[in-house]
Specification:
The structure holds two protein chains of two kinds. Chain A is an alpha/beta fold. Chain A has five helices and six strands. Chain A has a six-stranded mixed barrel with strand order 1-5-2-4-3-6. In chain A, α1 runs antiparallel to α2. The longest helix of chain A is centred in the last third of the chain and has 9 residues. The radius of gyration of chain A is 17 Å and the shape is globular. The relative contact order of chain B is 0.17. In chain B, the strands form four sheets. Chain B has a nine-stranded mixed β-sheet with strand order 6-5-18-17-16-7-8-14-15. In chain B, strands 11-10-9-12-13 form a five-stranded parallel β-sheet. A four-stranded antiparallel β-sheet of chain B has the order 1-2-3-4, with helices on one face. Chain B starts with 6 loop residues before the first strand and ends with a helix. Helices cover about 40% and strands about 15% of the residues of chain B. In chain B, β7, α3 and β8 form a beta-alpha-beta unit. Chain B is an alpha/beta fold. The longest helix of chain B has 22 residues. Classes of the chains: A alpha/beta, B alpha/beta. At the A-B interface, β1, α1, α4 and α5 of A face α1, α2, α4, α6 and α11 of B.
């Protein structure tokens, strides 16, 4: 990627048991979801290079970006980040399915940069920010017949 | 499969044993639930399972139908949902997996009747693995066999500690089986994952590969098993040392009964179904020196069921289009993400899945532009973007039916309580009521257009199977 913000890094997303417990328990519009899915695992060396951030902004090739809490962990290899499955990760996941139907949830090149102040949006605020512009066709008016 | 559920009822408390868990692909059938008016206590359930059982007494359960976010009567919601779907030119039916195959069957019937597209959770999960099964074929077994026989467990791109928390203790690493009475000490564990996951901590060998090199690593093991040496660039490309890859190949050769558990690590990364095909070819090769099987760690309790029933009813496992009157299969074209991304879908029916949270942004944006009908149990991203929300029933708790476990074994799940509303008994019932409303609307439309029709007067009683079949035949014949 040439243009954009931050440095290139490989994104893997995936489920965690705690994130699973939040969604299975129907707590999808609570702070628990933010706590368990709105973070980004970063390798310690990458973490240092990013300037020990509290928050990071992750941007994909289309320019869509999301702000997440930064977590330092040695579970990650250098040059890779992990975001738990959820609406935050899916802001940057691209819909390229290689003719299989399955989008690029893993091994996706994104860009990461330090974000000074956040904030990390809660699930409802995130949905409202990204998905409320409903340019919906007036299907009531287009109705062809009446029952 | 599960033994008889025993219910002992005291004044206001029910205790149930051998309850099936409606969460992950293992569908554990040994859960105990104590239920009273205010609380739920579970035994044997994992953190995710317990969270789902707590939904029985949660405060955020959706118990009233919603139209545009406002509470509405059930009949009005069903009518609106039917209207949305009947008016669509290219409706999409997304059949989620935390429900029974009976409900899925009705949803597929509706899709066929309206000439829509139908897809299930497999499409964003193990769809590529299913394509690989079509490509190479699967040598599989039941979870009981892995428990009692497996002396080598290879977790490829899988982290069951998080995705299937009881996997290791019930079916693989720690379980003491008939031929594996030593438990952990009688089994070898290999984990292939770019992250040092919690499962990797249990491994005898962790192959921490570079992301997207699964195909190369699988090929390298097969190369060694065939008596050759991998290419000199192997370590540079994959990040795995020669010593480790030889060790992995030795383990495959020495295994008496080996299992490759494939996770989304191979299905969601670059290469997709080619990776899964290669894993199945490695399984074939492993069978030359011992018994080798491959199983997909399916994420939901009945995601396998959708593939099975769509395959036996219409010949294809997922991503099917009925617009020409006959089923056509093409992942990448009729699959959910692709059809939404191209913007050709003009209405969406989503049952028992949270697409709002789990599809890429561009697909969710399309869902915001079109009318969406959902069956949902709790507020969240999917309910947020839905025009009509029909309250969901918790399968395996409030209604019974069939689940296909991740080893393709169908199990009948029982219920132990009733839904907190009386307008529907199960998700199957909801779909049936919707189907009947759609049939009535289609017949009314034909009448309005002045075509020859034999529509019966509108009735509130559900149609019998025979009656439905006759009406469906008539409608399909007219469409063709």
């Amino acid at each position: 990627m040439q243009e954009g913000r931050g440095v290139d890094i490989i994104l893997n997303t995936g489920g965690t048991a705690f994130q699973g417990a939040v969604i299975k328990g129907g707590r999808k519009f609570t702070d628990d979801y933010t706590k368990e899915a709105a973070y980004c695992d970063i390798n310690p060396e990458d973490f240092e290079e990013l300037g020990k951030p509290w928050f990071v902004r992750v941007t994909n090739e289309y320019g869509d970006s999301v702000i997440l809490r930064a977590k330092k962990t040695d579970r990650q290899q250098r040059g890779e980040i992990f975001i738990p499955r959820g609406p935050w990760a899916n802001i940057v996941v691209t819909p390229v399915t290689e003719s299989t139907g399955s989008p690029r949830y893993k091994n996706l090149v994104v860009q990461i940069e330090k974000e000074a102040h956040g904030p990390v949006l809660g699930p409802k605020e995130l949905m409202e920010k990204y998905y409320t512009k409903r340019e919906r066709p007036n299907w009531e008016a287009n109705r062809k017949w009446t029952a | 499969m599960s033994s008889e559920a025993q219910e002992s009822e005291t004044s206001d408390k029910i205790t149930c044993t051998d309850v099936t868990c409606p969460i992950c692909g293992i569908a554990c059938d040994d859960i105990e639930v104590e239920l009273d008016d205010v609380s739920v206590v579970t035994r044997n359930a994992c953190i995710m399972g317990d969270a789902k059982f707590q939904e029985l007494r949660s405060s955020h359960r959706i118990t009233t139908p919603l139209i545009d976010g406002k509470e509405a009567p059930w009949s009005e919601a069903i009518d609106k949902a039917a209207e949305i779907l009947v008016n669509a030119k290219r409706p999409f039916f997304f059949v989620g997996s935390e429900t029974t195959t009976e409900a899925m069957g009705v949803a597929i019937e509706i899709a066929e009747m309206l000439g829509g597209l139908v897809d299930g959770n497999a499409t964003i999960c193990h769809g590529p693995t299913v394509m690989a099964i079509q490509d190479v074929g699967q040598s599989g077994c039941t979870l009981g066999e892995t428990r009692n026989r497996a002396d080598l467990d290879i977790y490829w791109g899988a982290n069951p500690e998080d995705s299937h928390p009881r996997h290791l203790s019930r079916h693989s690493i720690f379980q003491r089986g008939f031929f594996t009475e030593q438990g952990r000490f009688g089994r070898k564990i290999v984990v292939v994952d770019p992250r040092r996951s919690t499962t990797a901590e249990h491994a005898d060998l962790h192959l921490q590969l570079k992301p997207g090199t699964d195909f190369e690593v699988l090929s390298a093991i097969m190369t060694i098993l065939n008596g050759f040496e991998p290419h000199e660039s192997f370590t540079e490309v994959t990040g795995i040392s020669r010593e480790d890859i030889h060790k992995a190949a030795e383990m495959v050769k020495d295994a008496r009964f080996g299992v490759i558990w494939v996770g989304l690590g191979i299905a969601s990364t670059r290469g997709k179904h080619y990776n899964a095909s290669m894993a199945m070819r490695l399984t074939q090769l492993g069978n030359k020196t011992g018994k080798f099987v491959i199983l997909a760690n399916r994420g939901h309790c009945n995601v396998t069921g959708f593939n099975h029933i769509l395959a036996w009813s219409h010949g294809f496992p997922y991503a099917v289009d009925f617009s020409t009157g006959e089923p056509r299969y093409q992942p990448g074209e009729y699959s959910c993400v692709d059809a939404l991304r191209r913007g050709e879908v003009d209405a969406l029916f989503c049952m028992c899945a949270d697409l709002g949270a789990h599809l890429p942004k561009i697909a969710v944006e399309r869902m915001c532009q079109i009318p969406v009908v959902s069956i949902e149990t709790a507020e969240g991203p999917q309910a947020f973007i839905s025009d009509v929300v029909l309250p969901g029933v918790l399968d395996a708790m409030e209604c019974e039916g069939t689940f296909y476990r991740m080893d393709n074994v169908p199990i009948y799940v029982r219920s132990f309580c009733d839904p907190p509303f009386d307008f529907t008994k199960s998700n199957e019932d909801t779909c049936t009521q919707l189907r009947d409303a759609i049939i009535q609307k289609l017949e009314a439309r034909e009448k309005a257009e002045g075509k020859e029709t034999q529509a019966k007067p509108q009735t509130t009683t559900p149609l019998s199977d025979e009656e439905f079949g006759q009406r469906l035949d008539k409608l399909v014949t007219r469409t063709v």
